[in-house]
UniProtKB/TrEMBL annotation:
CDD domains: ACT_ACR_3. InterPro entries: ACR1-12, ACT-like_dom_sf, ACT_dom. Residues 199-277 form the ACT domain. PANTHER family: ACT DOMAIN-CONTAINING PROTEIN ACR4, ACT DOMAIN-CONTAINING PROTEIN ACR4-RELATED. Residues 1-18 form the signal peptide. It comes from the Eukaryota. This is ACT domain-containing protein. Keywords: Repeat, Signal. It comes from Ceratopteris richardii (Triangle waterfern).
Amino acid sequence: MSEISALLLHMHCNVVSAELWTHNMRVACLLHITDLTGGPICDSEKLSRIKESLCNVLGGDKDPRGARTDFASGITHSERRMHQLMFADRDYERGCDEEDDRPDSDGRITVENCDEKGYSVVNIECKNRHKLVFDTVCTLTDMQYVVFHATIDTEGPRAYQEYYIRHIDGCTLNSQAERRKLIKCLCAAIERRVTEGLRLELCTNDRVGLLTDVTRIFREHGLSVTRADVSTRNNKAIDVFYVSDSSRNPVDVKLIEAVRKKIGQTVLKATQEPVYSMPPHLEASQESRSKFSLGSLFGKPSQVLYNLGLIKSYS
């Protein structure tokens, strides 16, 4: 991320917002950039130079898959696009192997056919977390599967998802290879948002080159960014970074304090991962598990999911 932001600054670009995910030794990054005046970059030759330079920086000498960079002028949902980028890059290929269908240490994914109803049934058990259903449905949709019915069930820290699906052509998953690929892709979708490293939050007045300076200091102190969410609101830079050392090990507290001293102790803070809790009046009782059907939840389609193309209406 340090090299990307430095290159863009060198080419007179300003990063307004950015999102970066890492998974299975692959990285995907979505950036919103402007010229130094805050306007859009319309020069096609400049865009071509930026694209070529980024590919050279990202590809390196040891990446057999190479690197891909592209531009889009339309509005897209950033997290949906991140899933698509990772899926296109085949980050799932190092996911669940033949002997391990688990997205976490005690979870499991199975795919079976229900011949009586003409559906394939996907069952997922894993740790519950924020946006878990979104990540799952994004992947099913991007793989050209249609969800006809689904049930989501939570109990304590565990989540249980069941989806009745068919391929967009109406067929079920009839081959073992197709089922294996779906399991691998769902594993990857669940794991991508699992954060590694220490959470650092930055809040300060925005300026051109800020991201370059911050990530350069991270790099000079041996920190690696495993995930980032960079945004600008009302001329304020509000950024979240997850960092580890170059071997993905936890970082030393003294090292973090040195980084904070360099950037500004009031600007950069180390925080705990936020806990997403349900409002008290919505919490299920001990005897009642919080179970619901997507059919009833989206009886009147959610505008967000509808706009994303993740849900459709079937009579």
